[in-house]
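Please decode residue identities from the backbone states below.
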């Protein structure tokens, strides 16, 4: 039976054979028919959000939604948000404000806030921003089609009755503390796994089709005092290894040359077989065993797939993937077993993103990072002992509550001592709901934070210059991913890319001034390499290919070279 409201059908479950149906942990539901709706989706924040957006896009496309390039053309506007710093939230809120102006002017739009800000701010966000129609936290993205459907249905119904909605129809899916209630419950309720499993494997859904993310772990159990992630993404949950390996295989079949495994503390990956919960005949993700597990020797843990095991399995299963990398590593629980697998498997990139956060023991203790500066350093030297050609990157926070000049100087010293190729440097931003905001006054003035940020960038720039210069003269594989025209070149056109590290442009040509185009790529160690090409077409041949490049010159964040086969 179908109900008709104007030109839109609301289809009952008896029509299921003819229309797309979502089913999963939250039951089956039906969608509205009509011309395909145009969706605009903008993503803020980390790689996990980028992957979530790719999955959302695949899911909605399969249901007949059509994605558009600008919000001006869209009927559904979705922002996948980040809450890690206030600035990221402000950016998203300013977009929400702009859509609000359009809605008040009479445009018929559905506005959805997805991701960490939806989860953190919850229904307060709806109260303060009445133009928002739906909220969907990162652990509930599998329910998004249902939420959009609910809003559309309620609107269609009120239109059909000629009613002006007194209370706007809104749809909300947030996890609250569900994921921390019990491991069995969390696994059984974990509809998000079905979103990962429903991946479309469509290379065109990615900006760089040859490169893909695969989630292995969700959430975080670390509770660093400054961080919202354990609250917004919930408890650490590990995906079954079979699901991960299968996803990597299918991405490889679809042409992926590079796979990056994602987890907030990726090296905490651990899946214990035999105790796994099964949902609908399928192994379910598993809540992390807690930090004590990392004190056991891996061999003593029976029938467990450790992070090292998983890396090895993927490496063997997908030989066509030239690069297997992973982010982000938590420095304390990083076993030698992982380093051994990295050493023995040529396609695993010897690259670590392992944030130190601070170079002061007092600050690390207040951050609840769980290690001292000495332990961090010992970890780094252990890495280089096993993998002499490894590259190291990290994150650092300046201006954490109580950070003295001496604490800050200790962080600068750490950056001078250790071979960081780059560090993402952040000013501390107090986040509602975290331990730090309750326990510590935000007592470092903003101008001091700004000064420390710039001073640390200058120190990092010297270290980066040393690290990059040491690679000059070597020949390395480069996976090309972009093209750019030199800033001063008359050939500069739209579509050329800027070389960016952590959102900052790395400017200017490194080679001779006469060439006007460069193809840009990365080494296995994530060092950026630019190669001069005589013109745009010859530069554009390179993205998506791996070439041997002889490195000839360096800048703090950039290497220049020539392709060996061209010489
Ligand atoms: N303020 C500043 N930086 C933060 N980060 C996380 N939370 C905050 C915060 N409240 C940084 C950490 C982390 C990176 C993703 O963001 O350095 O590693
Ligand atoms: Fe946040 Fe710390 Fe977890 Fe990283 S390890 S996501 S900084 S709580």
């Amino acid at each position: 039976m179908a109900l008709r409201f104007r030109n839109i059908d609301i289809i009952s479950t008896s029509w299921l054979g003819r229309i797309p149906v979502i089913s999963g942990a939250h039951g089956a539901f039906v969608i509205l028919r009509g011309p395909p709706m145009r969706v605009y989706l903008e993503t803020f924040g980390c790689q996990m959000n980028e992957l979530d957006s790719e999955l959302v896009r695949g899911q909605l496309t399969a249901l007949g939604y059509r994605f558009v390039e600008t919000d001006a053309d869209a009927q559904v506007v979705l922002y996948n948000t980040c809450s890690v710093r206030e600035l990221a939230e402000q950016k998203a809120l300013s977009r929400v404000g702009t859509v609000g102006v359009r809605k008040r002017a009479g445009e018929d739009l559905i506005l959805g806030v997805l991701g960490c800000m939806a989860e953190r701010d919850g229904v307060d966000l709806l109260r303060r921003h009445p133009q928002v129609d739906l909220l969907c936290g990162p652990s509930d993205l599998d329910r998004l089609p249902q939420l959009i459907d609910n809003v559309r249905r309620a609107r269609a119904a009120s239109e059909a009755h000629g009613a002006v909605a007194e209370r706007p129809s809104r749809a909300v899916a947030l996890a609250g503390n569900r994921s921390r209630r019990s491991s069995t419950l969390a696994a059984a309720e974990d509809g998000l796994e079905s979103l990962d499993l429903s991946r479309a494997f469509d290379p065109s859904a990615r900006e760089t089709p040859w490169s893909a993310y695969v989630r292995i772990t969700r959430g975080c159990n670390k509770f660093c005092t400054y961080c919202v992630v354990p609250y917004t993404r919930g408890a650490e949950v590990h995906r079954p290894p079979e699901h991960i390996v299968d996803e990597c295989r299918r991405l490889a079949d679809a042409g992926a040359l590079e796979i990056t495994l994602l987890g907030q503390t990726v090296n905490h990956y651990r899946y214990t077989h035999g105790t796994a919960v099964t949902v609908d005949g399928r192994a379910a993700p598993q809540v992390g065993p807690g930090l004590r597990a990392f004190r056991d020797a891996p061999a003593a843990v029976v029938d467990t797939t450790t992070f090292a095991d998983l890396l090895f399995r993927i490496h063997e299963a997908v030989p066509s993937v030239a690069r297997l990398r992973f982010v982000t590593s938590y420095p304390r629980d990083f076993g030698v077993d992982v380093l051994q697998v990295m050493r023995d498997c040529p396609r695993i990139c010897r690259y670590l993103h392992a944030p130190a956060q601070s170079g002061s023991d007092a600050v690390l203790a207040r951050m609840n990072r769980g290690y001292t500066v000495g332990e961090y350093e010992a970890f780094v030297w252990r890495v280089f002992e096993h993998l002499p050609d490894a590259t190291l990157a990290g994150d650092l926070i300046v201006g954490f509550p109580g950070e003295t000049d001496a604490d800050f100087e200790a962080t600068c010293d750490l950056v001078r001592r250790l071979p960081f190729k780059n560090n993402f440097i952040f000013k501390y931003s107090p986040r509602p709901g975290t331990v730090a905001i309750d326990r510590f006054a935000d007592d470092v003035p903003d101008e001091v934070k700004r000064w420390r940020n710039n001073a640390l960038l200058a120190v990092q720039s010297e270290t980066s210059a040393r690290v990059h210069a040491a690679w000059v003269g070597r020949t390395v594989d480069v996976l090309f991913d972009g093209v750019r025209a030199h800033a001063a070149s008359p050939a500069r056109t739209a579509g050329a890319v800027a070389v960016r590290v952590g959102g900052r442009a790395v400017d200017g040509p490194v080679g001779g001034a006469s060439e006007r185009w460069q193809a840009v790529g990365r080494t296995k160690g994530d060092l950026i390499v630019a190669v001069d090409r005589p013109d745009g077409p010859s530069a554009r041949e390179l993205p998506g290919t791996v070439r041997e490049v002889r490195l000839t010159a360096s800048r703090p964040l950039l290497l220049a070279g020539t392709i060996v086969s061209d010489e």
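Observation: The longest strand covers residues 475-485.
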